[in-house]
Design goal:
This is Halobacterial output domain-containing protein. By secondary structure, the protein is an alpha+beta fold. Helix content is 22%, strand content 38%.
Length: 129
């Protein structure tokens, strides 16, 4: 098994409120989890099923309140207190860091996904200023 990623957050987004645009975030950190061996064209659907299976258990509350052509969830880990967004796109599960997100919540979801899927995962991160 490969070494577990740390999920260290190099830059947190900054929350901004505008009268005209509402809530906006400046900057971002995203962790992308890709299965080491893809299983075909239906990968996004299979990843969404895996993610929902994990999120349906303790300690999560989550919701998909957006009408988008991709899965996008707001996730709350009641054990760690972390809140972050999770999306599925192009055969990847992406953890989108919010201003108060800590690595513990990201790491816990990663561990549960890895245990449930019994797959190896490639984890990459990107940060935008």
């Amino acid at each position: 098994m490969t070494e577990e990623p740390s999920f260290a957050i190099p830059r947190r987004p900054e929350r901004r409120y505008s009268r005209h645009a509402g809530l906006e975030y400046e900057g971002s950190t995203v962790f992308s989890l890709s299965p080491a061996a893809k299983r075909g064209e239906q990968e996004d659907e299979a990843l969404d099923e895996l993610l929902q299976d994990v999120l349906d258990g303790d300690p999560y509350t989550y919701g998909d309140w957006f009408d988008l052509p991709m899965a996008l969830y707001l996730v709350h880990d009641t054990e760690t207190g972390d809140v972050f967004r999770v999306s599925i796109r192009d055969g990847r599960i992406e953890f989108h860091v919010l201003p108060e997100t800590d690595p513990d919540g990201l790491r816990a979801l990663y561990r549960r996904l890895a245990a449930r899927s019994e797959r190896e995962w490639i984890v990459e991160s990107s940060t935008d200023a």
